[in-house]
Write a structure and sequence with these properties.
Length: 210
């Protein structure tokens, strides 16, 4: 990658669940959405090696999520997408600059890190969570997730996917949480454009509001 050390380069990506579709020939295809920050587009359009690097990241994350083993013979048909693209908003929790709730700043979405995270074989747990009263004016809903094992190192690898009726949290090797939200009981559907996520370090909690 133009002389850069790939082992010290981390690119966040969120991978959707696989879904089956029928292509124009009537053949079944398994489709995954991989969501990257748009800041990679400029370099990817000019640097073939970087495009290959990003493609490899996508394949590795799909393999990690699905358990599939994918080949590396890649073709790119002249189509915009395999099946319809559905609206999707992905939020990555803000990273606090210190251990207080009041001082929180966002981390760069593409950043250099010292080394690769240690590989772990620990089974991922489902963290405890609850719905809480909105509290603040203008807040329609609030979910609190207990994350006592979340650290600064793990935070850089964590993803939070917020959809209108679903919240998915993944902290590799530690936590996996998928919350389907039933709005039939009067709960408010999440406005993904207004949703916010906050890691409160001192309380060891992740708070999602909308």
């Amino acid at each position: 990658m133009s002389g850069e050390d790939e082992s010290a380069y981390f690119v966040p990506v969120v991978v959707s669940d696989g879904r089956e579709i029928l292509d124009r020939a009537g053949k079944r295809s398994l489709v995954f959405d991989t969501v990257f920050h748009p800041s990679i587009n400029d370099r990817g359009s000019k640097d073939a090696d970087y495009r290959t690097f990003i493609t490899e990241i996508a394949l590795e994350r799909i393999e990690e999520k699905s358990g599939l083993v994918l080949g590396r013979e890649i073709s790119t048909p002249n189509i915009s997408s395999k099946g319809p693209l559905t609206p999707r908003t992905v939020l990555v929790p803000y990273f606090p600059s210190n251990d207080t709730q009041s001082s929180i700043t966002g981390k760069p979405l593409v950043e250099e890190i010292d080394s690769k995270p240690a590989v772990t074989t620990t089974a991922e747990q489902t963290p405890q969570w609850r719905r809480d009263s909105p509290g603040e004016k203008g807040v329609k809903g609030r979910i609190i997730v207990e994350v006592p094992k979340l650290t600064r190192t793990l935070h850089s690898q964590s993803t939070l996917d917020i959809e209108p009726n679903r919240i998915i949290l993944h902290i590799p090797g530690v936590y996996a949480l998928d919350i389907p939200l039933d709005n039939s009981g009067g709960d408010h559907e999440i406005d993904v454009n207004e949703a916010r996520a906050q890691w409160i370090v001192e309380d060891k909690k992740l708070v999602v509001t909308w």
